Amino acid sequence: MKVIVAGGGSVGRFTAEELVAAGHDVLLIENDRAVFRDYGKAEESKGVRWYLGDACDVEVLRAAGVPDADVVAAVTGDDEDNLVISLLAKQEFGAPRVIARVNNPKNHWMFNEMWGIDVAVSTPHLITSLVQEAVSVGNFVKLMDFAGGKAELAEVTLAENSPAINKTLKDLKFPRSATVVAIVREEVVLVPESDTILRAGDEVMVLITEDAEPAIKKILVG
Q1: Residue 188 CB burial class (10 angstroms; 0-12, 13-18, ≥19)
Q2: Domains contained in the chain, CATH given
Q3: Rounded to an integer, what distance in angstroms lies between the CA atom of residue 121 and that of residue 130?
Q4: pTM score > 0.70 for this model?
Q5: Phi-psi region for residue 173, left (φ > 0), alpha (ψ -120 to 50) or beta?
Q6: Of 51, 71, 37, which Cα lies nearest the Cα of 7?
Q7: I want to staple 156 with a disulfide (CB 3.0 to 4.6 A). Which of 2, 36, 152, 220 is the partner?
Q8: Would you give the DSSP letter of residue 123?
Q9: How far is CA 123 from each of CA 83, 144, 148, 198, rounded to the nearest angstrom?
Q10: pLDDT tens figures, 27-61
Q11: What is the DSSP letter of 198?
Q12: CA-to-CA distance for 214 and 144, rounded, in angstroms?
């Protein structure tokens, strides 16, 4: 898979290194000559290719290979830049998948499909969700949004009084717009099957589209 990462800061460099280690072809765009000088050669020795230029410039994106990219990740430390990069990648080059980093939580509402963004990653929101997930039993916790808010990954740790206890997934009759993607039981990840029986304390991960959230809450929380 060919990936373009815009932003050579610590987040961009780490992301690029991890993707290269996973076998992907990665090019990192950075406009700061000092960062390019200090990290470029070291990163290239790890397999990460670098391109010096402003990723908000459509010609820079073209020269860097965005027209042929499978994924574009805008992870600079500036939200305005990430929005512009995402919009150009999607509208000018039709990038199949665009991922954008949200630095200021107050700007999260703008990171949607109107700006060409398929997935927005907000670290503050993610940390909040993970804290809630760690301490909440019997509550519906939204972990992440996808497709500009049209889909979401949510988690419910089943309480003793959950209506889903001792029932199979088939019995619970989830709506078509919701899919149980994983169940964590005693630190073991289970692949959901139609005859999987839910137990108290299970962490149920559900991918939800459309307006299925109320139905999921009713099924798993009560």
Answers
A1: exposed
A2: 2-121 (3.40.50.720), 136-220 (3.30.70.1450)
A3: 13
A4: no
A5: left
A6: 51
A7: 220
A8: H
A9: 16, 10, 16, 31
A10: 999 999 999 888 877 777 788 999 999 999 999 99
A11: P
A12: 17
200 residue type, one letter: A
Please, what is the Cα angle at 185 between 184 and 187, to 5 degrees? 80
Question: Among 215, 220, 180, 219, which Cα is nearest to 200's?
Answer: 220
CA distances from 214 to 175, 197, 210, 217 (A): 11, 22, 11, 5
Indicate the SS3 state at residue 79: helix
How confident is the model over 159-207, as pLDDT tens digits?
899 999 999 999 988 888 888 988 988 888 888 898 999 999 888 888 8
pLDDT at 6: 97
- Rounded Cα distance, 29 and 60, in Å: 9
CB 61 within 8 A of CB 93: yes
Q: Helix or strand or coil: residue 138?
A: coil
pLDDT classification of 120: cutoffs 50, 70, 90: confident
Give the pair of three-digit tokens for residue 210.
């459309």
Q: How many CB atoms lie within 10 A of CB 56?
A: 21
State residue 46's pLDDT score.
81
| Strand duo 178-185 + 140-146: pairing | unpaired
Cβ–Cβ < 8 Å for 182, 156: no
If you search the block for the tokens 């088939």, which residue do you land on?
Answer: 170
